[in-house]
Amino acid sequence: MIKHVDNPVLEVHDLTVSYDRKPVLWDIDLTLPAGKLIGIVGPNGAGKSTLIKSVMGLTPNSSGYVKLFDKDLKQVRDRISYVPQRESVDWDFPASALDVVLMGRYGKLGLFKRPRKADRDIAIDSLRKVGMEAYAGRQISQLSGGQQQRVFLARALAQQADLYFMDEPFAGVDAATEKAIIEILREMSAKGNTVIVVHHDLQSVTQYFDWVILLNMRLVASGPTSEAFTTELLQETYGGKLTLLSDVGDLIRRERFPNREQFEKIPKGK
Amino acid sequence: MDTFFEFFSFADPNIRYVVIGSLLLTASSAIVGSFTFLKKKALVGDAVAHSVLPGVCLSFILYGEKNPIILILGAFATGWLSLILIDIISSKSKIKEDTAIGLILSVFFGIGIFMLTIIQKSGNAAQTGLDQILFGKAASLVGNDLIAFAVIAAILILSVWFFFKEFTLLAFDEDFASTIGLPVRGIELLLTTLTVLAVVIGIQAVGVVLMAAMLITPAAAARFWTEKITTMVWLAAIFGAFSGLTGAYISYIAPSMPTGPWIVVVISTIAFISFFMAPRRGILYRLNNQRKIKKQINDENILKVLYQLGEEEKNFYEKRTIEEILSKRKFVPVALKSGLKRLKREGYLKNDNGYWSFTRAGKHKGQRTVKLHRLWELYLTQYLRIAPDHVHDDADTIEHILTPELEARLEKLLNYPTMDPHQSEIPYR
């Protein structure tokens, strides 16, 4: 069940991504509608984070292309926000919560320029939206996991983007924080923003998301939650590991087999 | 002492040059090094420092005299080359980065020493003093050299000033920096170049062998004192400059002494002091904090015992002997005595010829500890389904840490219960 839409906010065309030559995502074709709260769901090692990293240009693609708002990433960077996994940074960094949120303004500021008063106001406002205003001056290592996640969310809000990618925003947060975060995400999508979330917990999928992407090394389904989040498709995503696919990937790595780029020179119709 | 005043009056222009030079070199390497430190690339700095040696020697062999600009260019070239090689080796082969760093460092330094020996044996009169590059000599910072080094130091400081925001973001969250369109590769390249430049000019004062200490140690020491990156960089610069000044002074009073080791000894001392003395992060602070907690637990336990004794006899203000207290709970006698004295001093207990009794405040504090203990036991049995005979030890610890805010939440959650799981009354006001 892969549903395609007109005027997509994100178009992924025949995307294959490899780590150390081993393909972790195979030939993904995907279009996503604007203004929705979208969940990317799949088992561990399914390539969920890889998909959004690849869309954000953080991992080189072996083949295929990605269009955002029908343009290249470079042309629309200031309309897109990316929230990395919380564990991806060292929180024992000499910075306050406000310092981190201000980083969300750096893209708009450009090189050399220092944050202005207006940027500071936006950052404080973002902290207030996530209920962290009282912690603005707090050193980030002193914050709890849930609070750190909120700071990351505030940094994304400060970017004032139209499209948000979030890598596991609910990982390691308490129930109250999860509720607060999903409230904010709903508000954002109600305002017409598109929010794409890598998600782990199957229980809450129907409750949280309008649209769901089922992923396990390849795209299993993409569509409105009511249509795509079915027992049958979930079984296809989670059940029966694709050991053959994985073994072929391992073989490619072991043999230092040519990359996909060289592959493409072979005429189509393989 | 005379030489001390002579030096620090800065009357002699030569002294002034050396001082200004040392301050600039050490401060600018500390500033650039702050970001090397935050990016956790300390070892890379060491590799670069050792790798500039063959460059210096090679440019001397080719040019035939000690021209600072030429030497800087040579040092810069091999310093840079070493970084590129480390990068290539760790990304293109099975060898991990730490191995690549060790490999490059020793190979480059080995070649450098080899060339240096050849130069020294060559009998070229111009080579005298070239060996000072190993351990540094601040006193040779005069004339043209100084101008060249000062210009580079100024470039370093200005670059960091201009790119402060970008360097900070890159050190904290590189992926995010890349997604907002920051030219990550370019800025990384710039920071690397600055690191190499800092090493190249720093070796004049510190020498190649110990240069890494000048990059990293000031920042590491400064990190203990602050949670703000701007303050940290300033502090690192000040620490670096202070050690540089000491190096210049040593160089002045003992001309045959290499300055590098002295500078490193001073900056390491600062780092050690920071390690022990700094508030919050320092060892002494933590030890002291531990001791305070221990005392608090001890004292609260004494009050708790007195309260429990009062509860049994329904008389809270009765006078008690030490033996009575010990019959209820085991204390280390010394700790009990000092605890009792402290509680008296703080106004929680009264002492009458060896008999101890509560003041009002003391009874209240003892009551609170007992209350928290029983509330926590109840919480554990009700919410964690732990058997009533297993909750006592947990509660014995938790009763000392609960804040008034948590206390209120606990009371509300349990709906102001009156009995704990062992049917003891939970005492409210």
UniProtKB/TrEMBL annotation, chain A:
**Listed PROSITE patterns:** ABC_TRANSPORTER_1, ABC_TRANSPORTER_2
Return the InterPro entries for the record: AAA+_ATPase, ABC_transporter-like_ATP-bd, ABC_transporter-like_CS, Metal_Ion_Import_ABC, P-loop_NTPase
Q: What does the record list as coiled-coil region(s)? A: none
Q: Which domain of life is it from?
A: Bacteria
Q: Which organism is it from?
A: Fulvivirga kasyanovii
Q: Does the keyword ATP-binding apply?
A: yes
- The reply to whether Nucleotide-binding figures as a keyword in the UniProt entry is yes
Name of a matching Pfam family: ABC_tran
The entry lists its GO molecular-function terms as: ATP binding
Q: Name the UniProt key words of this record, in alphabetical order.
A: ATP-binding, Nucleotide-binding, Transport
Q: Which family does it belong to?
A: Belongs to the ABC transporter superfamily.
Start and end of every ABC transporter domain?
Answer: 10-242
Q: What is this protein called?
A: ABC transporter ATP-binding protein
Automatic annotation (TrEMBL), chain B:
- Parts of the chain that traverse the membrane: 15-38, 69-89, 101-119, 146-164, 232-254, 260-278
Q: Where is the signal peptide?
A: none
Residues in Iron dependent repressor metal binding and dimerisation domain copies: 359-427
Q: How does it sit in the membrane?
A: Multi-pass membrane protein
Keyword Zinc-finger attributed: no
Record's InterPro entries? ABC_BtuC-like, ABC_TroCD, Fe_dep_repressor, Fe_dep_repressor_sf, Iron_dep_repressor, WH-like_DNA-bd_sf
Task: List, alphabetically, the SUPFAM superfamilies matched.
Answer: ABC transporter involved in vitamin B12 uptake, BtuC, Iron-dependent repressor protein, dimerization domain
Q: Which UniProt keywords apply?
A: Cell membrane, Membrane, Transmembrane, Transmembrane helix, Transport
CDD domains recorded: TM_ABC_iron-siderophores_like
Which family does the record claim for this protein? Belongs to the ABC-3 integral membrane protein family.
Per its UniProt record, what PANTHER family does this chain match?
ABC-TRANSPORTER METAL-BINDING PROTEIN (PTHR30477), METAL TRANSPORT SYSTEM MEMBRANE PROTEIN CT_069-RELATED (PTHR30477:SF3)
Specify the protein name: Zinc ABC transporter permease
